[in-house]
């Protein structure tokens, strides 16, 4: 396994009012991966990104990026880091191409018309390059944010809710661009409320809530370990208790005995096979049913379940 390009250890941030936005977070990011950081509003996602990007001063902990201690040698590391924030913070009267060229200059890089054109074309902004940012649609403004972050050719790119407020077509186009960045070797850390995007794109997933990093794992391994199958079987006649012949299955009666609910399996497909076996057993026993609805856990189901368990433990 390659050495991490970003290492966070014991990262903590306590604001003056006493709010602990980050609570001893440990996290390593690998070169070339897409890492999705998931959490509800106020979980600490933006604070973590702000700490790495120099926008938030941590209360304690260490941060290393590309081998540099961010507290001591911040400038060398920061020029290799790009950030696409949630909010557009730029001169709205500035032409698109000027805003992006200026972002490149902020990092001490010389003008590069070829690079500027490459970035603009890749994000479908070339035809808008002379327009003032204020004249663009919300989706195009979001593309300008990404272009500004890419202008200095970062090796590590933070995307904080990159597709918030963007229509479906633009979301798909942006994800194609993000996939292309990964193919060029850019490491990407993103936060998103669209968990299905993380499920589709991310290599690894971290779940954070109330400043605590609850879990970090390979997406596929997380789905396999925590995924479940749920099946609701509507019975032809109500039951007062579960018959002995199906008691070996993880089932319970619901809806006043008119339905059986199966919850079991894992992310390997075991649950589907067990549901099939359950229905065969019902048929053999002469227990009729009129409908069956089967659902496989998504990353969102796992996310909601973990948050629920944390809330219950508080």
Automatic annotation (TrEMBL):
<dbReference type="InterPro" id="IPR003593">
    <property type="entry name" value="AAA+_ATPase"/>
</dbReference>
<dbReference type="Pfam" id="PF00005">
    <property type="entry name" value="ABC_tran"/>
</dbReference>
<dbReference type="GO" id="GO:0005524">
    <property type="term" value="F:ATP binding"/>
</dbReference>
<keyword id="KW-0813">Transport</keyword>
<dbReference type="InterPro" id="IPR017871">
    <property type="entry name" value="ABC_transporter-like_CS"/>
</dbReference>
<dbReference type="InterPro" id="IPR027417">
    <property type="entry name" value="P-loop_NTPase"/>
</dbReference>
<keyword id="KW-0547">Nucleotide-binding</keyword>
<feature type="domain" description="ABC transporter">
    <location>
        <begin position="6"/>
        <end position="235"/>
    </location>
</feature>
<dbReference type="InterPro" id="IPR050763">
    <property type="entry name" value="ABC_transporter_ATP-binding"/>
</dbReference>
<keyword id="KW-0067">ATP-binding</keyword>
<dbReference type="InterPro" id="IPR003439">
    <property type="entry name" value="ABC_transporter-like_ATP-bd"/>
</dbReference>
<dbReference type="GO" id="GO:0016887">
    <property type="term" value="F:ATP hydrolysis activity"/>
</dbReference>
<protein>
    <submittedName>
        <fullName>ATP-binding cassette domain-containing protein</fullName>
    </submittedName>
</protein>
């Amino acid at each position: 396994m390659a050495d991490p390009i970003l290492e966070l250890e014991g990262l903590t941030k306590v604001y003056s009012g006493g709010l602990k936005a980050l609570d001893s977070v440990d996290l390593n990011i690998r070169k070339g991966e897409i890492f999705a950081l998931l959490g509800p509003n106020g979980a600490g996602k933006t604070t973590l990104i702000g700490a790495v990007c120099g926008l938030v001063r941590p209360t304690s902990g260490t941060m290393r990026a590309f081998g540099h201690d961010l507290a001591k040698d911040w400038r060398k590391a920061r020029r290799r880091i790009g950030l696409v924030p949630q909010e557009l913070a730029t001169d709205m009267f500035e032409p698109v191409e000027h805003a992006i060229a200026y972002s490149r200059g902020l990092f001490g890089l010389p003008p590069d018309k070829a690079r500027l054109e490459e970035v603009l074309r890749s994000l479908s902004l070339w035809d808008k390059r002379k327009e003032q940012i204020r004249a663009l649609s919300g989706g195009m403004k979001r593309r300008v944010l990404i272009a500004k972050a890419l202008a200095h050719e970062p090796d590590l790119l933070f995307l904080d809710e990159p597709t918030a407020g963007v229509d479906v077509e633009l979301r798909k186009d942006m994800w194609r661009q993000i996939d292309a960045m990964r193919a060029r070797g850019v490491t990407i850390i993103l936060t998103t409320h669209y968990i299905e995007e993380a499920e589709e794109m991310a290599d690894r997933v971290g779940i954070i809530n109330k400043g605590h990093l609850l879990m970090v794992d390979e997406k596929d391994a997380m789905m396999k370990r925590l995924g479940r199958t749920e099946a609701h079987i509507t019975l032809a006649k109500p039951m007062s208790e579960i018959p002995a012949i199906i008691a070996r299955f993880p089932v319970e009666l619901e809806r006043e005995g008119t339905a059986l609910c199966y919850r079991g399996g894992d992310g390997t497909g075991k649950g589907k096979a067990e549901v099939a076996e359950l229905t065969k057993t019902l048929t053999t026993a002469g227990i009729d049913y009129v409908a069956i609805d089967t659902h496989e856990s998504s990353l969102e189901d796992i996310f909601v379940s973990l948050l629920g368990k944390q809330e219950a433990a508080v």
